[in-house]
User: Fold these one by one.
Assistant:
Number 1:
Amino acid sequence: MSLAKPDATDISTKQKVALAIGIIGLFIMMLAFLNFDFPNRAVSLGLSLAAISIGTVIYARDAYLNKLEGIKNDGVWFKSISSRGLWGWIVGIILTTFYIVLYFLPTYLGLGENGNPNSGLISLFDPLSQLLSGRNASQWFVYGTLYTVAIFIFGYKFMLKYKHNRYQQVRTLSVMFFQLGFAFLIPEFMYVMNSDLPYYDLKSIWPLNYYIFDEWSVNGFLSNGTIGLGLILFGILSIFVISPILTYKYGKRWYCSWVCGCGGLAETAGDSFRQLSSKKLSAWKLERWLVHIVLVFSVVMTVAMVYTYLGYDSNNFWLTRDVFIMAVIAFLSVVFGIVLYFKGKELGKDAKIGAIGFFVVILLLLVLHFTGTTQEVFFIQGSTLRSAYGLYIGSIFSGVIGTGFYPILGSRSWCRFGCPMAAILGFQQRLFSKFRITTNGGQCISCGNCSTYCEMGIDVRAYAQKGENIVRSSCVGCGICSAVCPRGVLKLENASEKGRINSNDILLGNDVNLLDLINQK
Amino acid sequence: MEHVVIIGNGISGVTLARHIRKQSEKKITIISSESDYFFSRTALMYVFMGHMKFEHTQPYENWFWKKNRIDLKKAFVKNVDTDSKLVIFSSGEVLKYDKLVIATGSKPSKFGWPGQDLKGVMGMYHKQDLENLEKYAPNNQICKRAVIVGGGLIGIELAEMLHSRNIPVTFLVREDSFWNGVLPQGESAMINRHIKNNHIDLRLSTNLKSINADENGFVKSVTIENTGEEIACNVVGLTAGVSPNVDFLKSSKIELGRGVKVNRFLETNIKDVYAIGDCAEQHEAIGKRRPIEAVWYTGRMMGETLAQTICGNPMQYNPGHWFNSAKFFAIEYQTYGWVFSEKMKSQFEEHFHWKHKDDTKCITVAYHKETKKFLGINTFGIRMRHETFDKWLTEQREIDYVIQHLSEANFDPEFYKHYEREILEAYNHQLQIV
C-alpha cells in the first residue's frame, strides 16, 4: 500500500528552532574535531552541551506536553528516521563512523599520544575531566560524557512521552541514576581517591565487563589494599549472589532495563528505533545461537586468561591452575546438574542442545588444561584470545553494530544477539524466576502493537493471542508491550512460580467444560 | 480425505482452521477476496495512524499456512450450490467441499442516505476501506474536514485515526450522548467530554439528511436533518453499525435472517454447512447475548467450538461470562459480566458508579437490587483482571465482596496509583446516603 507522507508528521516551528539550537551545539563539537582552537574550552564545552540539551528538551516538550496523555506513536512508520528511511540510514552511518573512530582511531578525535597534550575534540573535554579527576580527558571520558548526556536528555524525552505511565518514569530515573553515579562519577572519584585502582563501573558485571579478570585489572585491585580487595570481591559477589537473587525475584529486567548502561542508552536514545527489531522466527533462531556462542566464548576466554597468568605468576595468587580449572569445571557441572534435575523435562529438546553446549565447554577447558602452557592456550598466544574477544565482541559487536546500527536493526541488537550477561540472566529468567508478563485472559485482539514495539524482537502477540503468559529468556522487562496494548492485556509481574508458564488451547471466556476438555489434553 | 472449505479469513475462520489442524489431518481451504493472509481487523486503525505497517497486523508469518497445510485461496465467492456441494467463484471456477463454513463477517450498514455511494464516502471495516481512506484523506490539505456518521466503536476509532493526521472531524451521533445505548450515563458523558478534549466537533442528537456531491461526483458536504445546516467536507465515514456479509447466499438454499441462521451447534438448515462469527445468527439469543454477536472474541470462540464438532466431537456453542473491551482515544474500556445502559437495563439492575476527578477513569458496578448479587462491571482507565471477574461471576459474589476485594482484580502496570480505597469510600458513602 503506498502511503503519502501525512502532514501530521511534520515538525512545528518551535521544534525547528529546537533542532537548530541542538545542531549549533553539535557544530561546536564539530569545530573542535576539526581542530578549531577555542579560546576558552570550558565555556565552549559548556555552551555545546547546553545547546544540545536545551534543544532536545524544547523539542521533547513541544512534542508531548501539548498533547493529552496516551500512546504517542502517531506517524512512527511514516517518519524517515524511525522507519529505515533516508534519515535513518544517514544517522546510522554517522553513528557507526563515530564508533569506528572512537574504538580504533582515537587520535583522529585528538587523543594526545606518548604524553603529548590532547587536541581536537578530546581537548575540548579536558576542563571537565580536570574538574572531576584532575587529569586530562581520554576518548573514553569524551564518550562517557556524551553517553551520560544522551541518557539524560533522551530519558527526559522518554519520560514526557510516557507521562501517563509510572513504571516507565521510575525505570528511566533509575537508568539515569546508575549512569550518572555508577558509570560516570564514581569511577572518576575513585581515581581521585586512589589513582592506581583500575576503572571500575560497579554495576558492570562479568561477563559484560569482560576485562575485570584481566591480569592488570586483578593486580590493580589486589595491590590496593582493602578497597581493591573489597571491589573485586563485590565483582565476584555480583556474579554469584546478588544477580541470581535479584533475577529470581524480579527477572532480568532489574539489570537490563533498570541498571545497565547499554540498556539505558537503548531505552532512551534508542527508543525511537525499538520497532525496527526483527520479529521473524528466523531472527529468534539466530539470536539463540549467537548469544550463546558469545557466552561460551566469553567463559572460555576468561578462564583461559586467568589460567595463563596463574601459571607464570603463581606466587602472587593463592590459587593454582589445577585448583582453578577444576573449580570451574565443578561449578559448571553443578549448575548443569541442577538445571537438568529440576527443569530437564520442561526444556525438552533444548536440554539436548544445552547438554552438547555444556560438554563442548568442559572439553575446551580440559584441552586448555592439558595443552596450555604459560604462554599459549589452544596453541595460540593466550593474550590473542583476549584481544580477539575485546575487538570483535567488546568493540565491534557491542559498539559499532550494537549502537551504530540503532536506526537499522533496532535499539537492542547487542543485548539480543551478543550480550553474554543477558544470556546468563535470560537463562535464569526462563528457568528460575518469579517474573512473567501475564496475559489477561481472553482479551487479546491480535492487533500486534506489542510485537511491533518489542525492542527484543519477541513476538509477544503469539503468546497473548493464545492466552499464554510470556516467559522468554530475552525479555528485558521494559514494559512497553504493556504500555502500547490498547486492550489492557499485558502486565509485568513477579508472582508465584506456579502457573507461570501456562499453555491454553481454548481461551478464557468460552464454555468452561470445553475449556477443561481441551486444555487437559 | 475430507475437505473443509472456509469462506472468510478473519479471526473466526482462521481460529477454526488452526483448531481443525491441531486435531485432524483434514484438507482445509480458506477463501478470501479481501487479503492474501489473515490480519487483525481491529488493528487497521494503527496502520493509518503510522503505529504499524500493514504486515504487522498479520499474526502469522507467511510460511505458517503452508507449514500447517492450510490452503489459502484469494477469490470472491459468488454463490454456493449446496446440492452438489460446490462453491462458485466470480471467475466461474468451482470448488468442491465436504464441509462448508461461512465465516464472512460483516459489512458496514448503510441506511439509504442520499449520496451514500459518492466518491469519498466509506465505511471503516475492510482492508479496502483503509486503502480508500488513504486515498481520500491522506492529510489535511486533501481532506479539509471529515464527517463521521454513527456514534459507535468504529466511529470513535475513525475519529481518532483522522485526528492523528490533524484532519478536522465532525462526529454526528444520533443519540443524545455517545454510545448510551450500551454505556450507562456517567460513562457515556465522560467519553463525550474526552472526545471534545481531543478537538473533535461532536454533534449529539444529530441525524444525517444527505451527502452532497460536487460536479465530479466527489463528496462536497453533508446536510444535517435537524437544522438543515450544511457542513463542507471531503470525506464521510459511515459507521452506524455493521450487518452480516451474506448477500452472496441469497440465491442459495441456506436459510438467512439478517445473518446465516444457525442452531447452537452452529449448523445451518443444510447438512454440512455451518456459519460462525459476525455473520452467524442464532435462532434464539443465548442468555442476554444478541442473536448476532459482531465481536472479535465471540468469533474466536465460535471457531474454537466448531472445530470440535467438525472433528467428530459435537459441541454446542456455549459462551461463558460476557466480556469485551475497546479504547476511546486514550481511555481504555473493559467490561466483564453485564452492565446495561439506563435505556436497556431491567428493573432489578442497580448501579454503583465512581469517577475519578481527572475525568478519565471511572467504573460502574451492576448488581441485583434485592439479592445484591454482582452482575458485572465496566471499567474505564483502570485495567482489570479477566480471570478474577470470571471467577467472581461464577461464584455469584455479592457487590460488597467485589468492592472490598477490588484490588485483587487490578491489572494496571506496576507503580500505578491505585484507587480501590477511594472507590470503597465512595461506595460506603453512597450506602449511607441511601
Note: The domain at 121-240 of chain B is CATH 3.50.50.60 (FAD/NAD(P)-binding domain).
Number 2:
Amino acid sequence: MKNDNVIQVKNLTKKFGDFTAVDSISFEVKKGEIFGFLGANGAGKTTAMKMLIGISKPTSGSAQIADFDVYTHTEDIKKNIGYMSQKFALYDDLTVRENSTFFGGIYGLSRAQIKEKTMQLIEELNLQAVANELVGSLPLGWKQKIAFSVALLHNPKIIFLDEPTGGVDPITRRQFWEMIYKTANNGTTIFVTTHYMDEAEYCDRVSIMVNGKIEALDTPKKLKEQFKATDMNEVFLKLARG
Amino acid sequence: MSISVKHISKSFKNTTAINDVSFEVKEGELFGLIGPDGAGKTTIFRILTTLLFADKGTATVAGYDVITNYKDIRNNVGYMPGRFSLYQDLTVEENLTFFATIFDTTIEENYDLIKDIYIQIEPFKNRRAGALSGGMKQKLALCCALIHKPKVLFLDEPTTGVDPVSRKEFWEMLKRLQQKGITILVSTPYMDEAILCDRIALIQNGQLLQIDTPQQIAKQYPKKIYAISADNIYQLIIHLKAYKHSYSVYPFGEFVHYTDKRADFDLKELVLFLEDRNIKNSRIQQTEATIEDTFMELAK
C-alpha cells in the first residue's frame, strides 16, 4: 500500500527513571509538509526529536521515519534525514567550502558530487566572496543559512530543524523561511521547532507539547479557531500555561 | 541620568563591535537594546559593567565613570550575562548566599526585593544550580543579580531561547522590579518584546539605528503597509517579489507585509496582478507598522 506519510509516530514514550519525558505521543507528517513542533522549555520536544532522528531509543511505542524503524534501522534513518540545530551546525574553524566538503564526505557523497554540490551551495547563497573564510567569522544569520544548505547536501527526505532561527536578525530570519518554503515545495519534509510564534504561522500544521503530551495538533488556522485566539502566541499561552 | 553613553567605539582585531554609540537611560526607566546576535549588544553591556574598556568615548553608570570609578559601579549594579554564569555545583541557596556575602549583605536584608521571584525556586533550594531547568536557572540568576539591591540592573538577552510562556512571566517580573525604583537596561533579539520597554534603541552591526519610545518608532514608518494573505503563501511571496512596483515583501505570521515603490497606487491593480498569477483567495488590507517592520526598513 502506497503511503505518503514520511513520519509515523504511535504512542511513542520515553521515561528516565520515574520521570516520563515523552508521554505516548502520536502523529503523522506527510511528504513535503512543514510541521511545527512547539512546546514550552522542558515539555519534552528535544527528547522526542532525539528519538525521531535515531539517537535515543524509545521506552515504548513505535515510530517510522522515512519508512525506517527507530528501534532497528537507526543508521538508515540517519542517511535519509538532515539535521541542524541552533547550538551545533558547522565547524567554526573550517571555511565554508571545507564545511561543505566535510559534511558531504560524512553523508557519503562521491568526490564529484561533493564538488558539484559545494559549488551549487556557494552560488545559491551568493557566498563567492567568503567561500574561503572561516565560518566562525561570519554573521549568525549566514551561518544558519549555510548550515541549512549543508544539511540538505545528501537530498534527505526529511530535515529536522531545532530552533534554527534563534537570535537571527529579522530579515535573515525571513530569508531562512523562504528557503524552508522552497525546500518543502520541492518535496522535502520539514520538521521544525521554534520559539517565534509568528514562525508557527508559517507551518502547514503545528503540534504543541505540554508536559510530555501533544495537547493540540492542527493547522494554525484551525488552532486559532479552536482556542478563540487572534494569533499563535495566544494559542500557545492558553495551552502551555494550563 | 542613570546611564549615559557618549560616542563609544570598540573593535576586536579587525572587527568593529560597536561604532560611535551614544544613548541615555533615565532613572527608573526600562530601556531595551533591540537587535540580533552579533549587533554589539553584549559589548555595550560589558563596557557599562566595567568588564571591558572602550577604545573611544565615555560612559557613566549611576553617576560613576566606567573607568575611574569602576569599583563604585560594581557595588551599584546587577549584571545577568547572556550565558548562565552561576556556580553549577553550588545549590540554589548556596549561590544566593555567596553573592550576598561578596556584596557584604545577607539574603534577609534584601529579601523583599527578590521575594516574588525566589519563592518560585525555593522548593528547590537544596538542588545544585547545574541541575535546574532553564527557566529556574534564569530566576536564580536574576535573584543573584538583585541580592545587593543594585540601582541599575543589566540583563543581557535574558529571554533568548526561552518559550513564550516563560518570556511573558519574565517581563512581568521586570515590570515589578521597575516599580521598586530600579533602572533596567535589557537586551533582546525578540522584536515583540520591544513594546514592553519605556524606550528602545534599535541596534545592528554595531550602530544604533534609532532611539525612541516603541510607539513613536513604529509610527515613523515611512510607507503604507498592506497585510496580504492567500492560500499558498510561498507562491504569494514569489509573485509579490516579482511585481515590478514592489518595494518590500516580508512574511509576518499568517500574512505577508507588502509595501509599494509608489507613494499612491490603486489596490485594484495589485488584486488583478495576483488574480492573473493564479493566487487563490488573496485578501489585502492596510495595517499598522510594527517595530519589526521599522527595524527591517532601517537595516535594509
Note: The beta strands of chain A are 5-16, 19-30, 34-39, 60-65, 68-69, 81-85, 158-162, 189-193, 205-210, 213-218.
